[in-house]
Structure formats: structure tokens, C-alpha cells
Amino acid sequence: MNTKQQQAIRFAQTLALALLILMALCASATAAKRYDVMVQGALDVELQPLLTALEGRKVVQLDAWTFWTGRIGKKTVVVSRTEVGPLNAAAATAIGIRYFQPRILINQGTAGGHYRALKLWDIVVGERSIDFSGVAQTHGDDGSGVRLARWQPMYNRLRIDGREQVAFESFPSDESLVKTALRIPYERGHVIAGNIGSAFHYSRELDYIDWVRRTYKTDSEDMESAFAAGVATAMHVPFVAVRIISDTEWEHPTFERIAGEYCADFVVKMIQALPRNSES
What we know:
- This protein is of the alpha/beta class.
- The protein has one domain (32-136, 148-278): 3-Layer(aba) Sandwich (Rossmann fold), CATH 3.40.50.1580.
- It contains seven helices and 14 strands.
- A hairpin with a 2-residue loop joins strand 3 and strand 4.
- Helix 3 runs parallel beside helix 6 (225-234).
- The longest helix is centred in the first third of the chain and has 30 residues, at 3-32.
């Protein structure tokens, strides 16, 4: 190989390295942009009004989870399809916070009722969110049956900023976000502040639902809110969950998918009502 060929190879290698560095810097710049709001939904029906309202929409696929970026009014917004369940909710939340650095996080969608005063289409704004799947049982002998009296709550623990572990009976929401949600006009039902329960359950036994409400003080049930709330707490992002009652086992046991659109419509109005850059 002559000198000119060696120089050409070195030049090509240097150019390739420079291109790789440039691509990495571009990717880093994209990831470093801060968004005003990240809003989540597990199901497509919980996202459509948000996607319709999202101007300049672009899709971003990060591994198994899909995000859309754009604007709603004057806010830069990321819409996140978390998919269903705790695993998806926690992963999509952590990835979304790291990549998009949202100033606030709203988890929203459908929920089953736990509080018997709630009606179809009522909305629960979570003053707090709780994982009601955490259970510690005392010993039961063979043949003694499954007895809820032997079940006691078991709570999640977080080591915030690497310090000592802290047990979270529930994850508190940002007070200003709760107040904003409670001010949004809504004609389909009532809007209340409450305790949003989450677990990888589809609870349909009324005695069990009543036990969960007594034990964990839950008003509603979904599969994502508390897990997104826990990640947001650990990563210092202001959070609120907004859930619409799509079914109640005591009065309307049929799951109404259209409720997802009604909740997303409500959250679009909430985002529009937020102060610029989420400043209080």
C-alpha cells in the first residue's frame, strides 16, 4: 500500500469518526431539549384527543414505547403511550423523563370505581396515588382458605438521591397541578380530588373492592398511575394523575371505552390552562 492510499484511508477513517461524533451530538441535543408537559395514556382510545390537539406532531420510538412530540397551545408537549400495566408504566415514565426532561408529568385515562358515590364519567384528580397490590400475608395452614383478614398493606420504598430508603404509603401529587385540574369546567359529571389506586388487577368482586377501599383508602382503580407517580417522585418531576370512571361493579359493570376520549378531552383543556413553562 502506497503513501497516498494510506492517507486516503486515514482521511476516510477521520471523516467517519467525525460523522459519528456529529450524530452523537445531534442525538444528545435532541434528548437535551426540555418539554413543558409529558402526558401519558395506556390505550389508544385514551390518547386520540391529545394527538389530535398536538400541533407539528412527530413520532419518537424508544425501544418498546412510543412518544409523540409537538405543541398544544403555547406548551411543548410529549404524548406517551405507556401501554398497560406496572412494568410498562414504570419503564415508559423513566425513559420519557430521561429523554424529554418534562417539567411536569400527567398520567391520565380510564379507571374502575372503588368509592360507591362515584358515577360513570366522574373524574378523580389524584391528590395521591397508591399501589394496592402490595400485600404481606400472615401464615395460613393447609385448608384454612384465603382470608383477607390475614392480609396487611406492604408499601414501596425508594432510595431518593441514593440516601436512606423511604417507605411511601402513597405518592403525593403536585398541589398546583391538582388545583389546576379541579378548576377545569366539566359537564359530564363531578370532578373530585381523591386517592387513585393502581395494581395489575381487574377487580370485579365487590367484597374485594370494598376491602381495598377500606384498607388503602382508594377511590378508583387503574393499572398505571401509582407506578408512574413513584418514578416521577424518584426523579423529581411534578406529577398528577387524572382518571375518569369508565365502569363500576355496583352500578355499571360494562367498561365504556369512550370514557378514555372524555378524559383526554379534559386533560387537553387542563394543559391549555397551565401557566407558561409550568411556572406557578
